[in-house]
Amino acid sequence: MALKPYLNNTNIEVGLDEAGRGCLAGPVVAAAVILPKNFNHPLLDDSKKLSEKKRNELRQVIEEKALAYAVAFVDNHTIDKINILNASILAMHKAIDKLTVKFDFLLIDGNRFKAYKKVPHECIIKGDGKYQSIAAASILAKTYRDEYIIKLAKKFPEYQWHQNKAYPTKKHIEAILEHGTTRYHRRSYHIKAYQLSLDF
After folding, report:
1. Residue 122: CA atoms inside 13 Å, Cβ hemisphere, count?
2. Less Cβ crowding at N or C end of the chain, within 10 Å?
3. Which CATH architecture has domain 13-153?
4. pTM here?
5. Structural contact between residues 55 and 143, judged by C-beta atoms closer than 8 angstroms
6. Angle, alpha carbons 75-81-83 (nearest 5°)
7. Cα 177 from chain centroid (whole Å)
8. How many whole angstroms separate alpha carbon 29 and alpha carbon 129?
9. Rounded to whole angstroms, how far apart are CA atoms 35 and 55?
10. CB atoms within 10 A of CB 81
11. What is the pLDDT of residues 160-172, one digit of tens each?
12. Strand order in the sheet with 28-34
């Protein structure tokens, strides 16, 4: 099913999504994207449905064609202080702050959001598979976060972040149990819960 170009044709809409909520380490990253009304790309989709190669190709297209875009990071220490939901919303607000084009509506992936100033918004469950601007935001958030984690992985090769991107894989958890955590790990994420819940 083709992604919809917008929710309201009369609005300048910002698509918003984040990446990294379920990771054991590193930041949560949000992106905000304003696409032209006539934007269309046959490969554009939810970032989770795309290969790494296609995500990187689409990132270049989005950055070239978007009317405006911005990416924002919220680190693991802030996640531990305010929880991952609030950190995800904070990252979205930070991304919106950086936009250089005026807008009048926000389209958010998911079902929870805190109003940004007085701008009207709509939360769309699985919106990254329904609307182009949210899908574009999901691609930027994912590629920027992966890029950051891959660089970080060079300092901490034992956790294999270059492969697992700091998600709770078997090898990542085994590395934590053997080597302990780094300053980039989220202390509020309890490793024992993952040991019990992961299907090894």
Report:
1. 17
2. N
3. 2-Layer Sandwich (3.30)
4. 0.93
5. yes
6. 85
7. 27
8. 19
9. 17
10. 11
11. 999 999 999 999 9
12. 68-74, 28-34, 13-19, 105-109, 121-124
